[in-house]
Amino acid sequence: MNIVRTLAARIVGNCIRLFARAITAVRADWQGIEPVPRQRVYYSNHTSNGDMPMIWSVLPPALRREVRPVAAADYWLKNKLRAFVGPEVFNCILIDRRPEVDDKPMDKILAALDEGSSLIIFPEGNRNMTDADLLPFKAGLYNMGLARPDVDLVPTWVANLNSIMPKGEIIPLPLICTVTFGAPVHVQEGESKDAFLTRAAKALSDLKPVVTS
Amino acid sequence: MNSTTIDIIWLTIGAFGILIGFTVVGEVLRARQDSNTQNPVLETYMTRVQSWWGMVALIGFAMLTGKIGITVLFAFASFAALREFLTLTTKAQADHLSLALAFFVVLPLQYIFVAMEWAGLYAIFIPVYAFLLLPIVSALRGNATKFLIRVAETQWGLMIAVFCVSHVPALMNLDIAGYGDRAILLVTFLVMVVQLGDLLEYFFGRRIGRTKIAAGLSPKTWEGLACGVGSAMIIGGLLSWITPFGVQGAMVMAGVASLVGMFGNLVFAAIKRDRGVKDWSHLIPGQGGFVDQLDSVVFAAPIFYHLTKFFWAV
How are strands ordered across the β-sheet holding A178-181? Predict the structure, then answer.
């Protein structure tokens, strides 16, 4: 049974990847890092539920095997299909966001880092529905950088997904999606939380491709 | 094997012969330079030659499968071109449905009409029906911000990426006396004269080009353009045996197609410059996107189609 599930997870993963490539021609732009296996936290802007699968799809196989997206349990456990895709295809670390439950998300994240996994996180905490590039970051990114200073925190900008699949639309548009990886940031000696989060957010929004219209 | 198939095989072998020449030149230059330095111009050239190998193989194969193969190939080219174009245009969420209709309804219907040979319909479907109906779908969502810009840019994308591109396979529908099923060779003729004309325009422009045509847009020069169009006319004359035009007619048609294509390239350069991008996308290694590669063919196709129809078709 386990072998069947693992195999099914592989097949579904490849289908998602091929679908992303065929529809959005998704492409990685490695500006600040090389696509080599190294422990990293890819932190990204979040405008659509497609963001995480896009980043996951452009990572080369060796990197994809090591990466674990941090995602919301309420979304990925909503039905049986999602409960299969989230934890088993994407190998997500699921976080319970209900206010009455303290799920100790940082413990789960640090445990995954200590196992050698890389992570995909969305430091804004929620999907950004505003016209601003980014919402203010939550403290999680800073805490990770402080607790595991050797891990590279890599800004990762996903462009165009908000027009490919805006909230409330059913049909995705086949526009070209680009995932840009910037140079890694680290928490510096004595740097305050706010100063670091501002710097990290700027490193991310600087990656946004310029298209004048 | 009929004579058309044999001609296609000869043309593909000829194109491969040219590519072997290009590859050998590149490899010789590569071997002559210092082994630990890399010449970026040469590397770009070699990447381009590699992409051409792929394209010639693809078009040659599609030609051998006949009309359906060519129509499907250009339908996919349209899809890639429309995707590149609409990625850069102004749009709002209110346009989501009309854009989805452009991709998933208008585009397939246009190619179905071409495949069914309904010339009356594929000539007006996008300029009339899509032009009038898609803005209605956008307007129903009630967002007036930049409305005219949004619908105009979408329509432009459809005209270029679907209407114009579909006129390449539509060439096969032309009914020319005494030419029969050989109309598929008009596709080869158009693509070859325009692409080779572009290549030689670039080559001569680099060598002897002085007077810029539009300095703010493109490095194209009048000297390069004249040599490119002249070369296209000579190539057209040499290829006249695959056309119904006769030698002089083939030269004129090749010259017109090449000239229109080069100015089309200038138009696309203006759009890219306006949007602040260098290439339309990164789909084809070394040459940017589909639109970068096909812009001149796209521009030339409808005019080539109508001139052929006007002067030669029954």
Answer: A27-30, A178-181, A152-159, A40-44, A118-121, A67-72, A93-95
Among B31, B30, B56, B55, which residue's Cα sits nearest to residue B43?
A: B30
End-to-end CA distance of chain B: 27
Query: Does residue B191 sit in the same domain as residue B267?
Result: yes
Identify the helix (H) or strand (E) that includes residue A41.
strand A40-44
Q: Determine the structural domain holding residue A45 and report its residue range.
A: 2-205
Position A200 in a domain: yes
- For the entire predicted model, the pTM comes to 0.85
Per the structure block, which two tokens stand in for A108?
């789960």
Task: Give me the mean pLDDT over the A53-78 stretch.
Answer: 91
Report the number of distinct structural domains present in chain A: 1
Contacts of A173 in chain B (CB under 8 A): 86, 96, 99-100, 103
Residue B152 sits in the same domain as residue B232:
no
Which of B142, B166, B190 corresponds to the end of one domain? B166
- Chain B residues with CB-CB distance to A213 below 8 A: 88-90, 275
Structure tokens at A169: 């639309």
Q: Residue B302, Cα to own-chain centre: how many angstroms? A: 11
Mean pLDDT value across residues A101-124 = 90
How distant is the Cα of A38 from the closest Cα of chain B, in angstroms? 26
B221 and B203, same domain (yes or no): yes
User: Could you tell me which chain B residue has the CA closest to the CA of A161?
Assistant: B87
Same domain, B193 and B286: yes
Size of interface A-B (CB pairs under 8 A): 44
The owner of tokens 């209407």 is B163
- pLDDT value of position B193: 94
B83–A174 C-beta distance less than 8 A = yes
Angle, helices B67-88/B184-208, rounded to nearest 10 degrees: 50
Residue A109 lies in a domain: yes
Please name the residue of chain B whose CA is at the shortest distance from the CA of residue A209.
Answer: B277
Whether B83 sits inside 8 A of A160 (CB atoms) is no
Q: How many CB atoms lie within 10 A of CB B12?
A: 18
Query: What average pLDDT score do residues B289-300 get?
Result: 86
